[in-house]
Amino acid sequence: MEASSELSNTLGTSFGERFISDYLGHKMSSDPLVAIVELIANAWDAGAKNVSIEWPSKNINVFSITDDGHGMTMEQFSLRWTQLSYNRQEGQGSSVEIPKDNNIHNVRKAYGRNGKGRFSALCFGDKEYFIETKRDDEHNCFKVRMSSGMQPFKYEAVSLPAPSRITAQHGTSVFVNNPGHIGITESKVRSEIGLRFLTDPDFIVKVNGKQIKFNDIDRQKVKELFFEFNGSMVLIKAIQTEKSDKTTHQHGVAWHANNRLIGECGWSGLRNDHILDGRTSLAKQYTFIVDASLISDEIEADWTAFKRTDKALSFYDLAKETIANYLLNLSLGQRKVTTNRLREENRYVLNQAGLLGVSRWSTFVDTVQVECPKIKEPELEALASILAKLEASTFQYSLIHKLNDFTSNDFDDLHEVLADWNISSAKAVLDEIKARLTLIESIREKVKDPATLEVQELQPLFEKALWVFGPEFESIEFTSNEGMTKVIKKLFKIDDNGSRNRPDFVVLPDSSIGLYGRYDYDDSGYEIGLKKVVIVELKKPSVPLGEEEKNQCWKYAKELYAKGAILSNAKIDCYLLGDSIQPQESGIDTKRDGDVRIVPLVFDTVLKRAETRLLNLHKHVKEVPFLDQNEIQSFLDKNTVQLNHQASLL
Description:
Layout lengths: L1 H7 L10 H6 L1 H5 L1 H14 L4 E5 L7 E6 L6 H7 L7 H5 L35 E8 L2 E9 L6 E6 L12 E7 L8 H11 L7 E4 L2 E2 L10 E8 L2 E9 L11 E5 L4 E6 L19 E6 L18 H36 L1 H4 L3 H18 L5 H16 L5 H7 L3 H13 L2 H26 L5 H10 L13 E2 L5 H8 L14 E3 L2 E11 L5 E13 L7 H16 L8 E8 L10 E3 L4 E7 H11 L3 H4 L8 H20 L2
Parallel strand pairs: 1-7, 11-13, 17-18, 18-20
Antiparallel strand pairs: 1-2, 2-6, 3-4, 3-6, 4-5, 7-8, 9-10, 10-13, 11-12, 14-16, 15-16, 16-17, 19-20
């Protein structure tokens, strides 16, 4: 038990043989082309101007890569090289430290981020490699060996090689003695390096003593583009790597003048724009080298950028257009295939859009593919379907203009609405809410206006607002502004002339009256007479509601019973509406054992009831467009037209 306890206190993490390949990734540990690019990137990050590579061949039984960068002291090697997942950005910053005697004037951005690239030398050796490094009068050599158990790597200081590969006052050499069979020719590696590291003339790479130049690149990977500027032809070299790299380092547009790089190679433009979206695969695959010697007098003194002169901007615009057209032509065939497939998938809807609509749709879909190259296939298919439906719709792209005004929160809210509702249901509910809110606001406006005509303006509004008086009136059948004879024939469905006290849009000296009824049915579904009647009498502002006005309502009710216009057991609610109620008359009167209710109400009370029935939505949606005064007037005008049409039929 004691031994077990002692052992548990000394246990630590151990590393299996697969750790290295898992840590580096399959390509970095086994693909020589990926490995050499990583090691060259390390030389770039070290501020090197010259890089010399010994590539194994029949006559060369060694692999090495030597640079004249800043090198490392013993302390720096211990801190940087032996630390797994070393944070380059935190430890050394994003800019490259460049030795002064290298005479490199441009600022460099570092490739490195996590320190894995240094171990790609294991791709060339049998579980070990050597590092010779020189800096500040320190000159050391170390052997790095793969291990297992408690340490994945072991580091050992060894004697300096003779002769030393580092001829400058500083630098680093990574080498492997007796490397295994690599299987990649010198010409192939020269081409691959040339594809990525020819953008900066201040970074010279040699393989087996011979400098890499454009001629080393596979001819199929380099295209020459031209444009005319001030009567002279300008050359652009387009270089395509075989596969997209992980980042845009050494990709983009490199501007050269007099065999010198202006600024940095990248996709940022002179007009604070981007020549190409750096997130796309093309941006990580293509490099363009522009000969800008014709505008060498437009370069800043420190060569970090062009001056923003008309001449430089004009040159830039032509170069950008040439590059953009070249890239567009590369994807033209695939874009056509995609557009044709999407057109076929949306053929039924597009047939309703007409030739002009189909043309707009095709142009839009093609433009989306150009401007949004990162869009995924499902999103593009969904967008194409939406656009087709917009073309075939009545209002077409007006919806797009509305969406353009949305905030990010608006889009989130819309998503939540559509998650709970379909469009048809939401529209049905919102249309009903809109109609009722507009109606309330219209009544409010008319009630405040002393010049309002009850029968011509207010009665038609209350005709549509019976729901204000209770839920039972949601579906009442009604007529309006007709004489008693029309009421009896159309609404009550009996043939009797009645008396002169006719309560359906009847205009009296001090009021107007509307009458509405609901039928009862027998077991067979046939109408047997009016079961419920609502009388709405609107009094002029100068007439307070009192006993006389209540009695007049009772007179209407008695006549309806007497003439047989309603069932003998029918219920009648008579609503007297006005500006004021006489003292002691505000209560509800009942007649005929409660069959008849006479209810005096002031207009403000009616409006408050209406808002309450709508859950006080009016307070929350005051700014909606349909409550604008112009919309309210349009609503009122429409009702006036309907009323005049009905009057013409009398």
